[in-house]
Sequence to fold (227 residues):
Amino acid sequence: DIQMTQSPSALSASVGDTVTITCRASQRISQWLAWYQQKPGKAPKLLIYKASTLEIGVPSRFSGSGSGTEFTLTIDTLQPDDFATYYCQQYNTLYTFGQGTKLEIK
Amino acid sequence: EVPLLESGGDLVQPGGSLRLSCEASGFAFDDYTMAWVRQAPGRGLEWISAVYSGSVSPYYADSVKGRFIISRDDSKNLLHLQMNNVRAEDTAVYYCAKGAAATTSWYFDVWGRGTLVTVSP
Fold:
């Protein structure tokens, strides 16, 4: 099974900051990686797929990069609506989610 | 219109059974992979099962293999999850999710709102 490890598990930042979340796969997954945003009590929302392709309607301040085993999600100029939990997911072989990164307001 | 609407969540005793359903609308249901993803209270997301278009080869996470059965009724745009021999650790919100492709693993582009399953005596 492919394991996904996100870091950090939690992150404090201020509105206007730029933050980066890292996701590492236990084996190579090419670019078969997605990022989701989840707010409390809500379903996850797809942000990025194929490591760097922005889902329609997602603000351009979100960006993704990486391939193989290491990936990043970057959020430029944080907005109040961005404070949430973020998950990576590999879909190279079935599906595995990372453990999540909770982005909190400093 | 809600694209995916789950139902069937309830309080069930350990060892009992429960059937979850997900009603799809607004897209060609039979053209896509469908999956169940769960989230235990205060925990992260866990994929548990998926079925490709055509109901070929359902897949399960080890945590539910042999206990849960996924099925789809393309004539009614319904996805089901039969949960048998449930355990306390099955307590979670269960989400129905649409894959972005018909076959092979793909990301999930549409999610339901979830249905809560609580396993307790």
